[in-house]
Amino acid sequence: MTASTELVASVEIAHEARTERVPPGAADGPVLRVIPGDVVRVAALLGRDPKLARAMAFGALAGGASLIGLVGTHDGRTFVERGELLRDAHPDLVVALAPDRGDVDGVIELAEALRFGCGDQHPLPHILVAGDERVRARIAAACPANTIESLPDLRTPAGREALVARLRAVRRRAQGDVVLRDEALEAAARALAASAKADVVLIDVTGGATSVIHAQPGGPVLGIHERLGVGAAADRVVARAGLDRVRRWIPRAVEAPALLERVFNRARWPDAIPASVLALSLEMALAREAIAHALTDAESAGVSLDAAWAAPLLVLTGRLAEFPRAAQSLLVAIDAFGPNGPTLVSRATGDTLVAAGALAARGRVATMPATDPIAIVAEMWPRRSATVRVKDSSGVVAEKVVRGSFLLVPTKGAVEIVLPGTTIRPSAEHLGLGVVIDARGRPLGLPPRDAERIPTLARWYAALDVLPADAR
Length: 472
Known about the structure:
Distance between the termini: 47 Å
Strand content: 15-25%
Shape: globular
């Protein structure tokens, strides 16, 4: 975080094809800009410790970079194959990880393969070396034209933080005094957790990126940032997940070629507002897969998400918070994130939360704007029929819950929930929709055949009144 004493009149947030200013209108003074940041392609030269690959993947996710190649000293590739792989990857940064003495000679050979494969690349990739002075000197001798910088051991928190800082500096590239959107979101999550004195998960889905951030009051902030989105990066979601995994979330039959054309249209028309129910359903499906793959990549990198799934507060921002109905934002979050305890789900529409986070990231005291509470989600997997009691200003409602249940209990005024098997009583002053009881289990199972899949989705959509009645 960079502290600044310069007064800021407004914050300008860049989207895919437009910018928004908070507060709106002409700025009467300096403007702080929030940008998505440039794409940074990163390759890694790895020693033998399997923890190095996971540490590198975690660092790339935390820094919002694309990890496009891992080359190991014992990966079985030939010198030429390694050089060709690195040449085709065309990295902006290369991280050489040789923290152990036994890896030095092998990593130097990988550095020579880098020079062989990327010697004609312009500009040449910078090389970050996690190793002692002798390793850096030998890599500098093997790649004399490349800029060499040092890093601490990436297997330590200090090493990961140093890598994230370097990646973000590259993503800003000659953009001036700007704040990256993921930086602003992490600062906002930290402030929300401190204010609520409870763990907060913030999920942000935009046209070009997806962020899942877990903040603890007074504790560390875990940020996962992927170049997967519902607009310009929609094709990346399909390339990663496969068209069938996106199509499975759409509550009607749709042919693959027609769906693929709609995906490419999303990428060609950034910031476009869905003009039909099918287009909206596609955007919801893309958001689900983007979030799910960000979480999967985090787990593959060795990140524990147990504390995030148990967080009592979930805040939605970006395009995820801009769906026409709050129930649409809620259903995507429940399906893709799947909190495993009672969770208050809210959404922050517009850019005011990002703007406040940007100010906080620059060391200023910023009051976080209020979010709109949508629902309390009570996730359950009862062995036998259980009763959930929901108390609000209208009285008490008792609901029988069995495995597979998915229902909404509308509420008015202050709400308190009595759940079986626990003394915790989730409560809220007001909820836009009410209490959602989710006993579908995890992972969610969707039948592969349309004849079974579509009725299943239709029940879930109808339970929350997600789509207009004439569109079901």
